[in-house]
Amino acid sequence: MYPKVVSIKTKTSLEGTLAETQERYSAQLSRLQNRVTGLEAQLSQLYANIASNKQEYDMLLDLKPGWSWKSQSTGGCWMGRMKVVTKVITVVQTVVDGKVIESSKTVDVDVDEIE
């Protein structure tokens, strides 16, 4: 058997096709890597928000107003001062191509005591 001879024109065409394929796959890989990086940033921000929310939730659980329970003979109702805590959390994120490029958070807390 004789080795197959490939013409210069065919070789040049195949090399061109290979180069185009490599460029396409490189561009596609780059886009996928950018997407993954963006998703990682969003996931990181989500974890930070969850940790912050847990901390705020724990803080609210620590608010122990002076409540006491009256006996059933008096109707079984809560007595004492109560605190009503209203908390508004606003998160604003700027997302470009799946990446969070800017994020801000404001927390407004209002505490009212009810006798």
UniProtKB/TrEMBL annotation:
NAD recorded as keyword:
no
| Entry superkingdom | Eukaryota
Q: What's a GO cellular component annotated to this UniProt protein?
A: intermediate filament
**Listed Gene3D superfamilies:** 1.20.5.170
A molecular function (GO) term: structural molecule activity
Query: What SUPFAM superfamilies does this protein map onto?
Result: Intermediate filament protein, coiled coil region
Alphabetical UniProt keywords:
Coiled coil, Keratin
Coiled-coil features, chain-numbered ranges? 22-49
**Record keyword Transcription regulation present:** no
InterPro entries per record: Keratin_I
The protein's name in its UniProt record? Keratin type I cytoskeletal 18
State the organism named in the record: Dissostichus eleginoides
From the broadest rank down, the organism's phylogenetic lineage runs:
Eukaryota, Metazoa, Chordata, Craniata, Vertebrata
